[in-house]
Amino acid sequence: MYPFIRYASTIAHAALQAKRGHTLTFKDTSEIHFRCRLSDIDNFLEMNNGRVLTLYDLGRTDFAVRSGLGRQLLKQRWGLVVAGSTIQYRKRIRAFDKVTLKTRVVGFDERWIYIEQSMWVKGKPCSSALLRTGVTEGGKVIKTARILEVMGQSDWQLPPTGYVAEWIISDADRPWPPQD
Questions:
Q1: I want to staple 69 with a disulfide (CB 3.0 to 4.6 A). Which of 64, 101, 108, 174 is the partner?
Q2: Half-sphere exposure of residue 171: CA atoms within 13 angstroms, side-chain side
Q3: Euclidean distance between CA atoms 78 and 70, whole angstroms
Q4: What are the helix and strand counts (H, E) for the chain?
């Protein structure tokens, strides 16, 4: 089940942080903290891999609210979409572990915003995800230049480099739909 109460709590906490002046720009890293709950674990008593992806939603939500993008989403009647992702798991997250979730923008091109997220326990990385995200209007992804203009950051540039650029290229070679 989707963690709606956690989601609402994340929005409220992020809005309070922003009101107190703890805002973010697209150049900053968001950090939120939570405990791994019994509802997050699988039969191996560790955080379920599907739950990890769901909880990454909370990090992107915090980032959107604190950066002002959330306000623009409401004002412009925009939506958010995840169009692709890749994830690596390195360390188990056990029930009741205190987790730090970090979210940052690592690049953008004409259409997509690339976001890197990671979960940490006791200062050690547990998982890391790279996501291709977009802002939608009327069901279609809009250009990032328009988003940056509305956000007052139209002069900002962050072309994808390194592993992000390599992932974009290799993902473009992937057949769709997958062939048997």
A1: 64
A2: 13
A3: 9
A4: 5, 6
SS3 120: strand
* Domains in the chain: ranges and CATH: 4-173 (3.10.129.10)
Among candidate residues 150, 148, 137, the one with its CA nearest the CA of residue 79: 137
- Give 4-52 pLDDT, tens digit per residue: 999 999 999 999 999 999 999 999 999 999 999 999 999 999 999 999 9
Q: Among all chains, which residue has been given the structure tokens 């091109």?
A: 109
Cβ atoms of residues 101 and 31 within 8 Å: yes
Q: Which of 4, 141, 14, 7 is nearest to 81 (CA)?
A: 141
Which SS3 state, helix, strand or coil, does residue 9 take? helix
Give the integer Cα–Cα distance in Å for 26 and 23: 10
Q: Does pTM surpass 0.85? A: yes
Question: Please, what is the end-to-end C-alpha distance for the chain in angstroms?
Answer: 31
- Does residue 162 come out as left (phi exceeding 0), alpha (psi in the -120 to 50 range) or beta? left
DSSP-assigned states of every residue in 12-67: HHHHHHHHTT----TTSEEEEEEEPPGGGB-TTSBB-HHHHHHHHHHHHHHHHHHH
Q: Which of 147, 1, 118 is nearest to 59 (CA)?
A: 118
